[in-house]
Design goal:
By secondary structure, the chain is an alpha+beta fold. It is 24% helix and 27% strand.
């Protein structure tokens, strides 16, 4: 069993706004604020009934763990002495969109996937400084609308079930 430390930020959920759209819009607001202030590095998102956990992803490269594998494990993650209660997993932050060998364009992204494999996605292109959204570039795509799923995103719940994967989270108290 591999073990490592990873930084987590938790956001407490409110009772109102439990729909996919409300959750997505709330996290887009978090992403926008982070982009405008200090940037929004890539993060894994874990939605639980009472809170949303954001895991920074830069440590995964050091541990040689693929992001998709980590997300699949988070889909079945549990806290000590608790049953898994994950409602959705995903990614958010700023990324470089690449096409072939061409240099990438900075993009802000939020992608959420639920246990039944439905998904919700928002993305917007960024200025080169990666702190300003380009006007008229925001798109929201939804599985429930029949939109095509963004390439290389999702499938984490299925992977977790196929490979019987799970991440065990042990909080470190300071």
């Amino acid at each position: 069993m591999q073990s490592f430390r990873i930084k987590v930020q938790s956001i407490w959920r409110k009772e109102e706004g439990r729909s996919d759209d409300a959750l997505g819009s709330s996290l887009v607001s978090v992403c926008r604020r982070a982009i405008a202030s200090q940037g929004a590095p890539p993060a894994a998102v874990v939605v639980r009934p009472s809170r949303i956990d954001l895991f920074t992803l830069h440590q995964l490269k050091e541990q040689q763990i693929a992001v998709g594998t980590f997300l699949a494990g988070l889909a079945s993650s549990s806290l000590p002495d608790q049953m898994p209660d994950v409602e959705a997993v995903g990614l958010m932050g700023t990324f470089m969109r690449r096409r072939g060998r061409e240099p990438g364009a900075p993009v802000a992204l939020l992608f959420l996937e639920w246990t039944d494999c439905r998904w919700w996605s928002w993305q917007a292109l960024l200025e080169a400084d990666q702190k300003t959204l380009l006007t008229n570039t925001e798109t929201i795509l939804l599985a429930e609308e029949g939109d095509a799923k963004p390439l290389k995103l999702g499938g984490w719940w299925s992977l977790a079930r196929r490979k019987n994967m799970a991440v065990r989270l042990d909080p470190e108290v300071h």
